[in-house]
Amino acid sequence: MEVASASQGCTYDGTLTPPATIPTKTGYTFKGWTVRGLPDGYTRLEYIQSSGTQYINTGVQYNSSKPIVLILTAKSDYSTTSNHVALGFGGLTGQWFGLNSQKWTIGTGGVSTVLATNKTSNIEITWTGGKEYLKIAGVSIGSRSTTNTTNNLWLFGCQGETSRFRGTIYSVQIFVDNVLVKDFIPAKNSSNVVGMYDTVSKTFFTNVGTGSFTAGAVVE
């Protein structure tokens, strides 16, 4: 095998010559792994923050026959003692996650809670077999029975609840039946509209509530 300089190209049973203009692309997909990137016109942010009036409709529907797993990194506004819903489908019981008496909780009535310190939490929520399960930092907290609903999954709130999340979300991934269907990255577009860019559907999800999200620091 002959090793040549870049100007000569590389020779190995033939000559491989790079193009005159080297192409660039954000978000290459390689076998076995993916680089999570944004297309031109979008700027990646560390997080987006809600004041309690903003929310995102993900379009993902509840289905008790197919497991739904949501993995997110979030931090609540711990300065308030009032309860607020961080995400969920809504409905009668058990389709939401949020703060209750300054504790992370799922379902109605403060069931399955853990102290929510004013720090970033790694959270995993699973809806399957008529139950909702909660993990914080890999530790199982408990479960809550759920009921069927046709509502879509919202971020920063849920349908039927006016007390919405006051805090920050850094990233969200949603799996349905073990398939990644949403991979949300905090971002802003060229018009400085702040929201979540889904790298799966290549769609920018923006606030459908009132006001606007606060942008976190730009990720270089």
Low-confidence stretches: 1-17, 25-34
Biggest sheet layout: 11 strands, antiparallel
What is the helix tally?
A: 0
Sheet-strand content, in percent, reads over 45%
Element-by-element helix/strand order: EEEEEEEEEEEEEEEEEEEEE
Instruction: Note the overall shape.
Output: globular
Helix content: under 10%
Q: Report the mean per-residue pLDDT as an integer.
A: 82
Number of strands: 21
Distance between the termini: 39 Å
SS class: mainly beta
User: How large, in whole angstroms, is the Cα Rg?
Assistant: 21 Å
Can you tag this structure with a few keywords?
46% strand; 220 residues; 0% helix; 21 strands; 6-stranded antiparallel sheet
